[in-house]
Design goal:
This protein is of the alpha/beta class. Helices cover 29% and strands 32% of the residues. The chain has a single domain, classed as FAD/NAD(P)-binding domain (3-Layer(bba) Sandwich). It holds the Pfam family FAD_binding_3.
């Protein structure tokens, strides 16, 4: 059977990468009509750099590095208060990469597009976990049975909400 991942951002395609290498069939459903290009910068360092390296994607991420060299603090009026080297503030070392979230998502998507099946413009409408798998009905009306369903659809996960109900989020800062 196939494993269904809800969410084609960063986590979904990263999981698909490893599952397909284990011989698993993977389908990724994403509510957006196409791959999302937006998002803020992501710092990839430490274990994340190691994982990207093992995936064979670290060099692609380095090519998309933002090249940020300085952090500038400005007043409400736009006057520079301080300008500091990014390395001083962010502690960048060696394989650290600062990449835009959309670029990282594209790299992961491109690396898995030939192995996982992507379905854009659709979403999970309902889940029914039974003894023979998880029966899923999609917003499009399509249905499927899956061995496993993974919610990788973000902080406000609709998949998590369908399975667990409303779970309060605790803001950490």
């Amino acid at each position: 059977m196939t494993i269904l991942i809800s969410g084609a951002g960063v986590a979904g395609p990263a999981l698909a990468h490893w599952l397909t290498r284990q011989g698993r069939r993977v389908e990724i459903v994403e509510k957006a009509p196409s791959l999302r290009a937006g998002g803020y910068k992501v710092d990839v360092r430490g274990a994340a750099s190691t994982v990207l390296g093992r995936m064979g994607l670290l060099e692609a991420a380095k090519k998309a590095d933002t090249g940020m060299r300085q952090i500038t603090y400005v007043s409400k009026r736009g006057k520079t208060i301080a300008a500091l080297p990014a390395d001083l503030i962010m502690g960048r070392r060696g394989d650290d990469v600062e990449i835009m979230r959309g670029d990282l998502g594209r790299i992961l998507h491109d690396a898995t597009a030939g192995e996982a099946e992507y379905r854009f413009g659709d979403a999970i409408a309902s889940l029914d976990d039974g003894p023979d798998g998880v029966d899923v009905t999609f917003a499009s009306g399509r249905r499927g049975r899956y061995e496993l369903v993974v919610g990788a659809d973000g902080l406000h996960s609709a998949t998590r909400r369908q399975v667990l109900g409303e779970v309060p989020l605790t803001r950490l800062g």
